[in-house]
Specification:
Blueprint: H1 15-31, E1 38-42, H2 45-53, E2 61-64, H3 80-86, H4 88-96, H5 109-127, E3 132-135, H6 138-148
Length: about 160
C-alpha cells in the first residue's frame, strides 16, 4: 500500500489527528501552563505538525532526533494482515518477549529506552527547574514511563 512506499517519519496527521492536536493544546493551556520555557519535538513530520497545532503563542520548537518513534524495521508500513502473513514467526517471538524483541532491521523497546534515557539526561543538564513541553510518540512516552518509574522487564 501507499504507507509502505515511504518511511513512517514522513506520515502526516489525519483530520482526526489535527483535531486532537488542537484539543490537546487547549487542554494544556487550560490545565497545565499557557507557556513553557523550552519546547521540543520529535523530528517526525506528524510530531512537528502536532507541535504547531497546539496553538501555543511564541513557542520556538527545537527538533530532537533522540525522541523519534521506535523503529519497527521491516514491519514498518505493513498492515496487521501483511505482518501476520509475512512475519508470523517474528510475531510469535515478539509475543514471547516484547521488551527485548527486536523486529528485523528495527529496535527493541529496551534499546529505544537508551535513546529516551539520553534525552532525559540532556533535559536534566540543560533544563533543570524549567517548564518543558515535549511532543513525541507513544512508544517514547512508554520509554519515559519505564525509566521514570524504574520499571524492569517483568514489571512492565
Amino acid at each position: 500500500g501507499p504507507f509502505g512506499e515511504r518511511h513512517s517519519s514522513k506520515y502526516r496527521l489525519t483530520d482526526m489527528g489535527r483535531s486532537q492536536a488542537k484539543q490537546a493544546g487547549e487542554f494544556i493551556k487550560k490545565n497545565i501552563y499557557d507557556s513553557f520555557d523550552y519546547y521540543v519535538t520529535s523530528e517526525y513530520a506528524r510530531a512537528m505538525e502536532t507541535a504547531g497545532l497546539l496553538g501555543i503563542d511564541n513557542a520556538e520548537w527545537s527538533v530532537e532526533f533522540s525522541i523519534r518513534e521506535r523503529d519497527n524495521g521491516v514491519l514498518g508500513g505493513l498492515s496487521k494482515k501483511e505482518r501476520k502473513e509475512e512475519y508470523a514467526e517474528e510475531l510469535q517471538r515478539r509475543d514471547r518477549d516484547l521488551f527485548y524483541w527486536q523486529p528485523p532491521g528495527g529496535e527493541s523497546i529496551a534499546s529505544m529506552c537508551f535513546r529516551v534515557e539520553k534525552f532525559l539526561h540532556q533535559l536534566e543538564q540543560q533544563c533543570a527547574g524549567l517548564r518543558v513541553l515535549v511532543v513525541c510518540h507513544g512508544n517514547i512516552m512508554e520509554g519515559f514511563r519505564i525509566l521514570l518509574e524504574h520499571l524492569n522487564q517483568p514489571q512492565w
